[in-house]
Amino acid sequence: MKKQRMKAVALSTVISAGALLAGAAQADQTLNSILSVGQSKVDAARASQVRINKLQDQTSDLIVQFKQENKQIEGLRVYNKQMEKQLEAQRAALAELDDAIANVTVIQREVPPLIIRMLDAMEQFVELDAPYKKELRLERIAKQRANLDSAKITVAEKFRQVVELYNIEAEYARKVDSYPDSVTIEGQELDGTILAIGRVSLMFQTADRSVTAAWDRGLNKWVTLSADEYAGTVYNGIRMAQKKASNGILALPVHAPEAAQ
């Protein structure tokens, strides 16, 4: 009886050990399955994080690009406003040009008579003025009159030349000048030097300073001056005009201003 019990206990122990081994193997399989699922989730999470990081980088790039595009758009808006102002100014300029072109025929018709009147007035002025470089001034006027008939010179250029003559005449009023010339004093022709102090005074003196004279606008002729009083002064004025002496004060005969008629 004891031997049968011992066999039964041994058999029961073997069965229990087999069941335990079988349960352990099953547990290992279950654990491996759990670990495998966990690793898959970790891998999936890692892949998701990579995608998220990539999307964040792409988003950052898009934001930077968006800001750059906004700056360019703002710059283009400012540029367009400036261009619009320029276009408006050009439209106004074109309108003015259209008006000028429409009136060009009238201008071309009216300018030549104006030029003639200007030359007539200048010639009359030179004839009535003191004889300062009179022949040269009249030659300029005659040359300009000849240019009026030239088809090679535009109306604008003819007008510019006349204005230039007026500028030359105006410059004489601000010049101190001297040059050699011959004058007639009391029926006698004398060689000497002319001294012009703007349009204030015009004087003459021979080389030996024996004769000193001034142009009298009222008498319209040369009048002899006192050698003792003016010979030295006029001589010094001539040297100043020729840059042979430093500028200084000159006591010269000057006509008193007259009331306009």
Give structural attributes.
261 residues; 5-stranded antiparallel sheet; elongated; alpha+beta; 4 helices
Q: What class would the helix/strand composition place it in?
A: alpha+beta
Separation of the first and last Cα atoms: 177 Å
- How are the strands of the largest sheet arranged? 1-2-3-4-5
* Count of separate DSSP helical elements: 4
The overall average pLDDT, rounded, is 80
- Give a count of the beta strands, DSSP E runs of length 2 or more: 5
For the biggest sheet, the summary is:
5 strands, antiparallel
Structural Rg: 57 Å
Order of helices and strands: HHHEEEEEH
Helix proportion range: 55-70%
Report the principal-axis shape. elongated
Low-pLDDT residue intervals, each spanning 5 or more residues: none
In what range is the share of β-strand residues? Answer: 5-15%
Note down, in words, how this protein is organized.
The chain has 261 residues and is α+β, with helices and mostly antiparallel strands. Among the domains are: 115 residues, no CATH class; 66 residues, no CATH class. Helix content is 67%, strand content 13%. It has a 5-stranded antiparallel β-sheet with strand order 1-2-3-4-5, covered by helices on one side. It is elongated and about 155 Å long. It starts with a helix and ends in a 20-residue tail after the last helix.
